[in-house]
Amino acid sequence: MNFFKTIIKRFWIVILLAVIINVPILVIGTYRTDKTITLKGDTTNIKSLVEVDNEYTEEGSFSSIYVISMDHSTILQNMICDLSNTTDVDDLSDYYLHFTDSETYQMGQVQKNSSIQTSIITAFNYAKSLNEKVYIDYKFKSLCVSFYFEGSPFKIKDEIIKINDIDVTAGRDEFVKQILSSKENDLVTVLRDEQEINIKLSKNAYQLMRFYEYYDINYDTIFPKITVNKSSSGGPSGGLLQTLSILNRLTEMDYSKGLKISGTGTMSVSFNVGAIGGIKQKIYTAYDDNVDIFFCPEKNYEEALIAYNNLKKKERMKLVSVKTLADAVSYLENV
């Protein structure tokens, strides 16, 4: 004890300065705020995500893009990211404050799973007109909850399988219409941890949650055979490029033409390309990874163009706005 007293007496100024300097650093480095940060990420060759048997030759590549998003970032992280022109620091929406880190991850995985299923279905259906041997059998499975408002009885990953007396066998369009028009006291049946649970809707009805479509694909009869590997990334924005990559390996024509093709956009079973978030960071990520062609959803084009015009040598990467899968395919056919 006397030893420590001696040390404190002799070095009290040094100890005091260390406390004064390090405590604020500790606070700003660990205190989490209601901010969200979006940073540049990387591109990922989709071949590693969905493998296709007896593939046609592919001289180029199709890559999806992921960005890094951090919710409830620390004060120090916000300060550092504010200094970067390629990073955005925004207020976290009040609607997301109640989610845990685990739920945020699950949310991204629900979106990713739906995106992969939709890309496979869309690519095979489009390829049928180009290659008569292509075959896929699938059916609508459920609406999987990817977001719920605070106080909602729903949970992330709940699969909606029935609304009142109408179940999923009614088909995608009818089932989606029913949940969108749901009202107070409607009974919704969900599959949660392999157990069926009935939820009676309150006045908020449909506003209680958001969902993504899930499908059952018959992988035993699909032709050619495919293998879907696990992915740690989340979100639905890889849909368009996933579809293009799979389609390219189902048809004799090589749409890649030796180019590095990337971009972003959701994909629907009706072949439409939807808007996404983080477009600025995706433009910068693609450019840094020497992408030749960047496909952008039409609804994101104006925002993308601002980031694109900030590139030093933008001419080496083409920015292409697309509204449908056919738009992207047509552009590649004429490259």
What would your notes on this structure say?
This protein is an alpha+beta fold and 335 residues long. It has eight helices and 16 strands. It has helices spanning 2-30, 75-81, 101-128, 172-180, 239-248, 279-288, 301-308, 325-333; strands spanning 35-45, 50-52, 61-71, 88-91, 138-148, 159-163, 166-167, 187-192, 195-200, 209-217, 226-228, 260-263, 266-267, 273-274, 293-297, 318-322. Strands 4-1-3-12-15-16 form a six-stranded mixed beta sheet, with helices on both faces. A hairpin with a 2-residue loop joins strand 6 and strand 7 (166-167). Helix 3 (101-128) packs parallel to helix 5 and helix 6 (279-288) packs across helix 7. It starts with a helix and ends with a helix. The mean pLDDT is 89.
Main features:
single chain; 335 residues; alpha+beta; 6-stranded mixed β-sheet; 8 helices; 16 strands; globular
Q: What would you call the structural class? A: alpha+beta
Record field, number of beta strands? 16
C-alpha geometry? globular
Question: Biggest sheet, strands in spatial order?
Answer: 4-1-3-12-15-16
